[in-house]
Amino acid sequence: MSRTGTTTDRLTCAPSRAARELDLKRGEFDLAVNLGLIRTVPDEGGGGRRVARGEIDRLCSGEGFPETLRRRVATVGTTEGARLMEVAPTRFTSLARYGLLVPVTFYLNRYRTVVWLYLAEELRQFAAERSNAPLLRARRTPVEIRVGLKAGMDRRPRNWRGRHVGFLTRDAGDDPWARAAAVACLLDPADVADVVPDPYERALLDDRRPRLPAHGAPGSATAELAEKLMTASDPDEVSWFRADLVHTMEEARRRHPVAAGLPLTPPPGPRPSAPDPAPDPAPVAERPAPPELTPPHGLLSRLRRRGRRPAG
To answer: Is the pTM value of this prediction over 0.85?
Structure first.
């Protein structure tokens, strides 16, 4: 088919078609979109995102295509990641649980065990950084990490959520309600209801809710476990997501108030009248800083100083 034309189907293509033309598996394609390597556009018919033909041409004409693109989205698990970084799998797992290696996706195997996957490119960069040598080459894992792991620390789910909310908010583009929904979808519904008490606004958030990765049949034990992993749980993490939801809701209300009549049928029951708008609306609060994807810098700083000391 010619890549020129006037219809939507000729100017853009569905994700499945784009993945084939870019010689990517569907999971690789989705990850490339999340990472911003492949730009998508809204489907004018309301069917989700599509890829412009010009974007496919741009990628296909890139140097080293398709190997370069595949390399940028290549993921590895613990065993392969440890081999790539030339460390024992136990050391790799310790660094990941402590939060120094951030997973990009996960899946649940047939035993309902969580298998975390990491970008191979990021692991290479971490291993190549000279200041990380003490973390990789020391005979024993640093004491701060050992203490944290002994206490049951595992930052992998939290770090995945922190990374994924960035993917979702970027995909939401300039739609303030979609951006608020991206934050809300990673909170427990009770927290969302507490922050957004208006059922009409919550219905609008549900309407804009992004699709999270599916794991197992709806209602299955696998799906329930995945949902737990995709819901903020640490108290300070929950506080950050709640604060960010407050911020994004303020922006959504300011730019597109529900009272203006958004294209969504309100939930059944009486709808209270909207208050008169204030003549001078208060400025939107500053967006809260995101939760750290890595542990405090004290550990790395101390290890780097030790790495610079001359041999005794």
So the answer is: no
